[in-house]
Amino acid sequence: MSHSSAPIYKIGFYTGAAIVVANMVGTGVFTSLGFQVLGIQSGFALLMLWAVGGLIALCGALSYGELAAAMPRSGGEYHYLSQIYHPAVGFLSGWVSATVGFAAPTALASIALGHYAASVWPALDPQILSIVVVLGLTAIHAMSSKAGSQFQVVITAIKVVVLVFFIGAGLVMAQPQPLAFLPVATDWRQLLSPAFAVSLVYVSYAYSGWNAAVYLTGEVDQPQRNLPRILLSGTAVVLCLYIGLNFAFLYSTPISKLAGQLEVGYVVANQVFGHSIGRLMGAVIAVLLVSTVSSMIFAGPRIVQVMGEDLTALRFLAPRSSRGIPLRAMLLQTALTLIFILTSTFEQVLLYAGFVLSLFTFLTVLGLFVLRIRHPNLPRPYRTWGYPVTPLLFLALSGWTLIFILRDKPTESLYGLATVMVGLVIYFLGRNRRPVAA
Questions:
Q1: Is 11 strand, coil or helix?
Q2: Which domain holds residue 379?
Q3: What single string gives the DSSP state of each residue in 225-247?
Q4: Does residue 436 surpass a pLDDT of 70?
Q5: What is the DSSP letter of 388?
Q6: Residue 92: exposed, middle, or buried by beta-carbon count in 10 A (0-12, 13-18, 19+)?
Q7: What's the rounded Cα separation, in Å, for the pair 66 and 112?
Q8: For the whole prediction, is pTM greater than 0.85?
Q9: Quick one: pLDDT at residue 5?
Q10: Rg of the Cα atoms in the chain
């Protein structure tokens, strides 16, 4: 492992919050509404999807804040589940994070970026553009954590400004659509329907990333103090943006034009601004998706690197560069991302990733109860607000969604479970490991 006398760059509150916002705001909010309106036609129910998804994310962030403060080490769910349950469970979550949690969403963001860009400039090859963006951002983050962090703050600030402008323009300039946003009796029944539960997969994917900062715990300045603030502030900002943005989408554009469309932002921009300015906004959205790809390339390799420290079979992934960058792990994640881009469709990857990632966040929040029972005297600089109601609410809503995904989307669910089983086989083949650091 390389060492250097130069101080390692520490991530502050604003950079951490920017990473959370950038991980969350991106592919999902600009693509998933087109899939949701295929099964749900109520304006109220559609907005409730985003409110419920935000509630799940906030309850998750509150729970993760306690775990991050009590066990301040990079690695996220991998570290928590190894300590709470068993190293095998931790390894499986790390395996899923490495193969699905970051590589698949990075591929999804890159694919969406390519489609948005091709809508504006039809001569572009979406797949080639996706690959070029992934390779270029990997090169930036491989050079310097400080450069990558500064790039992240700037492009995320631009993203938030553009989203606020989009919301305002949609409300002021658009022709209102005949869609009711106040509930009637039939709307409440839709909230308990299978279509609502499955649509929560798309919404949960859009909110995924609320836990991004916990993967960088070892690089966060004063993690016990800053991590809970980073998680909560980033998630709250995105919740407000998402509800406002989807209201603007539905308020301004007929559902018939949104149904089944991947480039929802481009469709809405054309509806609100006209074709010429709509093309410009489509280009802006494509550029903003660069922020999402960047944040995942920045955060994901830290999980794989920590796994390399703990497991002999993966020790070749443990070294960092002289600047503290997990270069080998970063290159592995980039290779997996490129495989997803080259072999899978957008919707297949989204449903597959959504199921298996929700499974491990469910286990992690459940671990909050286990940790309090097994280690009641463990120092907890931050305790989950609203405990036990908030984590129980997260578990109830997430568990309900998982059951409906397994029932209504068995193919994608089984692929997700197969990924977990492959990880289990790899764990037992290489279980000659070093003890997990406390």
A1: strand
A2: 13-429
A3: HHHHHHHHHHHHHHHHHHHHHHH
A4: no
A5: T
A6: buried
A7: 34
A8: no
A9: 43
A10: 21
For residue range 210-247, what is the model confidence (pLDDT) as tens digits? 776 566 666 677 766 777 778 788 888 888 889 988 88
The answer as to whether 3 is a domain residue is: no
> What CATH number corresponds to the domain at position 174?
1.20.1740.10
Residue 5 lies in a domain: no
Structure tokens at 206: 């859009």
pLDDT of residue 313: 66
What percent of the chain clears pLDDT 90, i.e. is strictly above it? 9
The pLDDT assigned to 85 comes to 93
Tokens of 183: 């509930």
Predicted pLDDT of residue 424: 87
- The phi, psi pair for 365, rounded to 5°, reads -65, -35
Q: Which residues contact 403 (CB under 8 A, 6 or more apart)?
A: 197
Q: What's the CA angle centered on 224, arms 223 and 229, to 5 degrees?
A: 80
DSSP string of 16-68, one letter each residue: HHHHHHHHHSSHHHHHTHHHHTTT---HHHHHHHHHHHHHHHHHHHHHHHHHH
Higher pLDDT, 110 or 434: 110
CA atoms of 92 and 80, how far apart (whole Å): 12
Each residue of 38-90: pLDDT tens digit? Answer: 888 888 989 999 999 888 888 988 888 888 878 877 667 878 898 899 888 98
- In whole angstroms, give the CA distance from residue 174 to residue 413: 39
Class of residue 184 by CB neighbours under 10 A (exposed 0-12, middle 13-18, buried 19+): exposed
Average pLDDT for 394-421:
86
Is 435 contained in some domain?
A: no
Identify which of 401, 415, 26 has the alpha carbon closest to the alpha carbon of residue 201: 401
Residue 435 confidence (pLDDT): 46
Are 302 and 101 spatial neighbours (Cβ–Cβ below 8 Å)?
Answer: no
Q: Is residue 339 part of a domain?
A: yes
Q: Mean pLDDT score of the chain, rounded to an integer?
A: 80
Is residue 11's pLDDT more than 90? no
DSSP labels, 313-362: GGGGG----TTS--HHHHHHHHHHHHHHHHH--HHHHHHHHHHHHHHHHH
Which string of b and e fits 291-309 if b means at least 16 CB within 10 Å? bbbbbbbbbbbbbbbbbbb
Helix-helix angle 223-252:13-24, to 10 degrees:
40
SS3 125: coil
Whether the bond between 388 and the residue before it is cis, its omega within 30 degrees of 0, is yes
Q: How far is CA 313 from CA 203, 293, 303, 336, 431, in A?
A: 36, 28, 15, 19, 7
If one counts the domains in the chain, the total is 1
